[in-house]
Fold AtuA-like ferredoxin-fold domain-containing protein.
Amino acid sequence: MTTPATVQRIDALADVRAGDKGDTLIVAVLARDRAAYGLLERRLTDDVVAARYGELITGPARRTCQPNLLAMVFELPGVLGGGVTGSPALDGHGKTLGYHLLSLEIRDV
């Protein structure tokens, strides 16, 4: 018999910091421990994160893993719609957009 998958929100496993480079949202995901990092590394792929932000992304998402820091950084082009000073979005610095990633649910199988 197989064990059912556990569903966890990212905010139970990690914290995020968000920044910008032009219209690209940069989100660092900082795992709370090695077990959380392992799960995030397996399940929080660039495709999963890109799907989370949907049509806001104008190019491919890129993930850079930093296992020595228990962190990964995602670069999401176009999400800031013109950059911090040029975007009509209320969240030009990406703080709420970073929380949007924390509320994502992933499965541990």
Residues 16-82+92-102 form one domain. The longest strand covers residues 14-21. The beta strands are 6-9, 14-21, 24-31, 62-66, 71-76, 105-108. The longest helix spans residues 34-43.
